């Protein structure tokens, strides 16, 4: 009987231990499940999550620490959002400032160009060869400055107002030929040869904006071409997934653009290196403007550069 009693007591104690272990395990598992679920919800963006565990032990301490952490996160997010809003406000102010200063600069600049034109036509008296040469230099630099100011105005306008398109059918071959004629002095000065291939002679798009894109890409290619080299311009049509795309490309030989900078060159004011602006001039807006216009047409623009050959491409959808 004593043995049986001992065995029964032992079994009872064992059973009690198992029951208590199961209860403790369920309690621990339940609390951990609450913490785990809250952590997942926070990971998914619900930073307002609060854990409530009132046990007076380590689990309550863990819940309090967890809530303290999420409150800190919420505070950091509020600060970050305020900072973002402030940066947006300052960015708009910067853009408005650029627009205002560009407008103020352009007004006297236009008058200066007008006076140079007036003098070149000898309406203020006859000119000797040296005076004509000096006026030519003044005009060239005034026109260059006018172009940069126009770029600033465009960037400001696109940032504040967006790009409004007026699509029409464009004779792209004629447009490119006219742009090439405008660059004749620069092409001649560097001894460049321009080769053209117009497999596709028309496209639908905003004519003025497309002209700006081609002018910027052409000017960029001429500027960075090595002397006495070839610039190649080509247009084509490409079909992808029942969609037609107008394709433009322009290639030139010069310095290779590092691969890690091929995307950065489309950022406003970006220069490949610090000497670029001093050596070639410009403020780094032409490619950024071109990208804004092409993307407004739901198209894509990019560059490739290898072994001294740099090529710029853009695609514009033309319907099915």
Topology readout:
Elements: H1 2-43, H2 58-120, H3 129-161, E1 167-171, H4 172-182, H5 184-190, E2 193-198, E3 202-206, H6 207-224, E4 230-240, E5 243-253, H7 274-280, H8 286-296, E6 300-306, E7 309-317
Parallel strand pairs: 2-4
Antiparallel strand pairs: 1-3, 4-5, 5-7, 6-7
Helix pairs in contact: 1-2, 2-3, 3-8, 4-6, 6-8
List keywords for this structure.
single chain; 320 residues; alpha+beta; Heat Shock Protein 90; five-stranded mixed beta sheet; two-stranded antiparallel ribbon; 60% helix
Note down, in words, how this protein is organized.
Helix 2 packs antiparallel against helix 3 (129-161). The longest helix has 63 residues, at 58-120. The radius of gyration is 34 Å and the shape is elongated. The strands form 2 sheets. Strands 2-4-5-7-6 form a 5-stranded mixed sheet. It has a two-stranded antiparallel sheet with strand order 1-3. It contains 8 helices and 7 strands, in the order αααβααββαββααββ. The N and C termini lie far apart (97 Å). The protein is of the alpha+beta class and 320 residues long. The model has no long low-confidence stretch (mean pLDDT 80). The protein has a domain at 167-317: Histidine kinase-like ATPase, C-terminal domain (Heat Shock Protein 90). Helix content is 60%, strand content 17%.
């Amino acid at each position: 009987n004593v043995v049986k009693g001992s065995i029964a007591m032992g079994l009872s104690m064992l059973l009690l231990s198992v029951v208590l272990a199961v209860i403790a395990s369920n309690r621990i598992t339940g609390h951990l499940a609450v913490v785990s679920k809250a952590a997942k919800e926070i990971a998914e963006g619900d930073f307002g999550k609060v854990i409530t565990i009132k046990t007076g032990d380590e689990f309550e301490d863990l819940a309090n620490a967890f809530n303290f952490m999420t409150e800190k996160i919420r505070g950091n997010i509020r600060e970050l959002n305020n900072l973002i809003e402030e940066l947006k406000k300052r960015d708009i102010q910067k853009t408005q400032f650029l627009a205002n200063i560009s407008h103020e600069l352009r007004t006297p600049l236009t008058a200066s160009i007008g006076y140079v034109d007036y003098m070149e036509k000898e309406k203020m008296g006859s000119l000797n060869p040296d005076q004509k040469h000096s006026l030519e230099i003044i005009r060239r630099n005034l026109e260059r400055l006018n172009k940069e100011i126009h770029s600033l105005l465009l960037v400001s306008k696109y940032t504040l107002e967006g790009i409004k398109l007026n699509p029409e059918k464009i004779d792209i071959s004629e447009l490119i030929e006219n742009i090439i004629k405008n660059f004749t002095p620069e092409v001649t000065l560097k001894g460049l040869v321009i080769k053209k291939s117009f497999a596709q002679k028309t496209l639908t798009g905003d004519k003025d904006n497309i002209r700006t894109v081609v002018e910027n890409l052409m000017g960029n290619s001429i500027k960075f071409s090595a002397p006495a080299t070839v610039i190649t311009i080509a247009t084509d049509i490409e079909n992808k997934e029942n969609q037609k795309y107008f394709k433009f490309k322009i290639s030139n030989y010069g310095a290779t653009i590092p691969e890690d900078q091929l995307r950065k060159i489309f950022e406003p004011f970006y220069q490949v290196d610090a000497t670029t602006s001093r050596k070639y001039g410009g403020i780094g807006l032409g490619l950024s403007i071109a990208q804004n216009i092409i993307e407004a047409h739901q198209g894509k623009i990019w560059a490739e550069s290898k072994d001294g050959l740099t090529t710029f491409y853009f695609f514009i959808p033309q319907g099915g």
